[in-house]
Amino acid sequence: MDQTLLRLTARLLHSYRHVGGINNIEVVNVPSKRAIGTICEGLLQLLFPGFHDEKPILSTELQEITAGRVADIAERLNEEICKSLRTQVPGGCPRELAADYVITFLEDLHPVREILRTDVEAAYEGDPAAQSYEEIIVAYPSVEAVAIQRLAHLLYRKHLPLIPRMMTEWAHARTGIDIHPGAQLGPYFFIDHGTGVVIGETCVLGSHVKLYHGVTLGAKSFQKDGQGHILKGGQRHPRVEDGVTIYPNSTVLGGETVVGAGSTIGGNVFLMHSVPPGSLVIYEETQLKILPKKGKPSSAELPHGDWSFDI
Question: What is the DSSP letter of 275?
Fold first, then answer.
């Protein structure tokens, strides 16, 4: 057994020497996925005090608990930001620059809470099944995904490498909702159900936008340079104006595509061009047929004749 393990170890070491591109040895350490997850958990506790805790928080304890959480996140985030910045400028940890990132980020938590309040309100007004704000905060995946994305967007705007993307991927893994940290989300944003939603980097969403599960706001085919490399940057994803609703499993693609204000995109629509404000976008009616299964009575024997419906 020991000899077998030594042989397998030797094979891995040989792979490390000869397979490049996926090793991070004798170079700067990258931010820790586990640490970023812990930071995200702590940020949710700050954004929604009492909703991500096992024990109730008393008002007399709130100042002490909040101060402790702010200090803990500041320390943890400072360390991960140092690692992130070293991927751009190898060498010693740029502590002063990292501290500036941390302070600026924490100063923005208050306005983020204000806009998250509008998201919770949009969920309550937009879902007849919602019984309370408390239910929405603790049970709706979109609230968690959007909260983390709004925070990650703050760091993305400052061009901090890796960490914003790690934050939104942490939320993606938990909720099934994939929102790039570069996307610009307006207030009163609600994703109903949420599973399978994808929102690309350069998307711009207005106020009071509502999406359902399976919606993709993506890019068309990518332009390439003379060497065949994908060109980065530019507006690649659609813009969705105020008051738009997009129903399940619809796909809207392209940086030149604008969904006009107040429009509704029906389910299973594939859209690659702009639509004016106030549009209803649906497919023409198709025929649904219900046929007898093998071994069941034939259609002639069924009491109501032809079981086909136009929808």
Answer: B
Write out the H or E segment, with its range, that includes residue 122: helix 109-126
pLDDT tens per residue, range 165-207: 999 999 999 999 999 999 999 999 999 999 999 999 999 999 9
Residue 14 lies in a domain: no
Average pLDDT over residues 32-38: 95
d(Cα 222, Cα 95) in Å, to the nearest integer? 38
CA dist., res. 123 & res. 191, Å (int):
8
User: Which residues are 239's β-sheet partners?
Assistant: 204, 258
Distance CA 253, CA 251 (A): 6
Nearest CA to 240 out of 224, 267, 260 is that of 260
Q: What is the pTM for the complete model shown?
A: 0.85
Q: At 178, which amino acid appears?
A: D
Predicted confidence (pLDDT) at residue 65 exceeds the cutoff of 70: yes
DSSP letter at 299?
G
Q: What is the mean pLDDT of residues 70-95?
A: 86
Containing structural domain, residue 241: 183-284
Q: Are residues 102 and 235 in the same domain?
A: no
Q: Helices 95-107 & 109-126, crossing angle to 10 degrees?
A: 40
Check residues 208 and 305 and name the one with the higher pLDDT.
208
Are residues 264 and 189 located together in one domain of the fold? yes
Token pair 């937009």: residue: 126
Count CA atoms within 13 Å of residue 86 on its CB side: 17
* pLDDT at site 311: 40
What was the pLDDT predicted at 305? Answer: 52
198 forms beta bridges with: 178, 216
Task: Tell me if 156 is assigned to some domain.
Answer: yes
61 and 92 together in one domain: yes
CATH number at residue 245: 2.160.10.10
In the Cβ-directed half-sphere of 192, how many Cα atoms lie within 13 Å? 19
**Domain total of the chain:** 2
- Supply 235's token pair: 């507006």
